[in-house]
Structures are given as structure tokens and as C-alpha cells.
């Protein structure tokens, strides 16, 4: 394999970069699913999603420094973001239901600024260093070269979370209510189910997924107050490319965007951002509803 090259790049290097893209895409998948869940059920464009991603990383790093346990912070950070999401939905977002898509969008946009400035005041402007836990450091020989163990863990863990989420939505009664509520909330209410409690739970779940993605991404890029800004843009690209409200589409698009970013950074690092937006434009030209948008909300 070492003698084979494509475009001047050894095939081994391209294969390793492909795996790197899958690991990066795993982060985008988690963030994109959270965004799709909230939009698909509630029709709320959560502009604070990147801020939840960032605060989740800070909470995880703080707890890791306090307890010394990465695994505890991996559980506590999304739980904290889920609880914060519940409070935000109940106190701030809920009064705006029925007032169109603009008001919740502007509210969450302002909320993201409040969260970023609060973190800057509490932790400073320079950010915090954060590396992979000792048990996940090192590299594994994949036969095509050595690959960081933490990135392999990231892929496996994210796939496990996505699988569990799929089972929850497809195989549980509450998941059935979520899917029914995404298609026709009035019918769900007629059946005696309080749809506001479903919206509350889904908003909290979406924010928890953002927080989980934040702590998982922390060892890859460090932790700064601005880390949620580019992720928010990429999460929207994932949601649009996959199809608004489509979970399967978010998974497919997240991995695709991760691979595009990784491959572009290899051949033309300065064009990485342009590449993902070019991908979005190309997909929308061919499929205006996104890759799996026809499946419908939460399809």
C-alpha cells in the first residue's frame, strides 16, 4: 500500500485521514442530532446550541480537574447541560411558542452571547488546556499506520450513543410520542398526552447531546469560550445537508462533513470552511430537502 499514491498522497496517508474525518464527523453527528431533535419536534432553531457545546466542555474540564475522573465528567457534563436546557426551555423558550420561528431564534441567539460572556468572566479569555485521559492516550496500529487511541474511542463511543438514541426513539413508547409529536402535535394532545412535557424533555436531550459533544471534543481542540461558534455553523450545515429534522440524515451528513473537512485540510487547509459550504450548496442543488429530508421530521 505504501507504493500506491493518489494525487501525490500515499494511500496509507489518505486512509488515515479518512479515519480522522470519521472521528471528527462523530462530533458533528452528536451536535447535529441535538439540533435536529429540537428543530424536528419543536420547530425551534436553537442558536445557543454551540454555547451549550462550549459550556459542556468547560463543565467537563472543571469536574475532571476537581475529581480526576474523565468518566465522571463524561457523564456529568451532558447531565448538567440537559438540566440547563430544561430550565432554558421552561423559563425562556416556552413563553415564545406560537409566536413564529423568529422570536425563539433571536432569544437563543442572545442567550448564546450571555453564556459565552459568562464563561469569559468565570474562566478568563485564554481558555483551558485539556488532554486525553491517561488510559486513552497513545496510538494503535491499524495496519495502515498508527492512529490515536482517543479518536478511535471517540468513534466507538459516539456510535454507541447514536445506537442507543435510535433504540430510544424507535423502540420505546416515549420515542413513539416524540415521533408522533414531530408530525402532528395536536393529535398527540387530543390523545391526552401533554405535548409541552415532551418538548421540555426533547429540548433537554438536545442540549445534553451538545454538552456531551463538547467534553468529547475538548481533548482534540482545547477549551475556549469561542469553541462553540464554528461548531454551531458546522452543525447547521450538517442539519441542512442531512435534511431538516432527519436524524438518519444528521448521522450521514455529520460523517460526510467530517470527512470533507479532514480531506480538505490535507490538500488545502485554507479552504476547509469553504469546502463544507460548497458541499451544502452542492447537496441543495441536487436535493433541496437534504440527503434524507424526504423521510420527514425525525425520520
TrEMBL record:
Source taxon at top rank: Bacteria
Transmembrane segments: 14-37, 44-64, 70-93, 105-128, 148-169, 198-220, 240-262, 274-292
GO function terms (MF aspect): transmembrane transporter activity
One annotated GO biological process: amino acid transport
Main location (coarse class): membrane
UniProt keyword annotations, A-Z: Amino-acid transport, Cell membrane, Membrane, Transmembrane, Transmembrane helix, Transport
Its membrane topology: Multi-pass membrane protein
Protein name listed in UniProt: Branched-chain amino acid ABC transporter permease
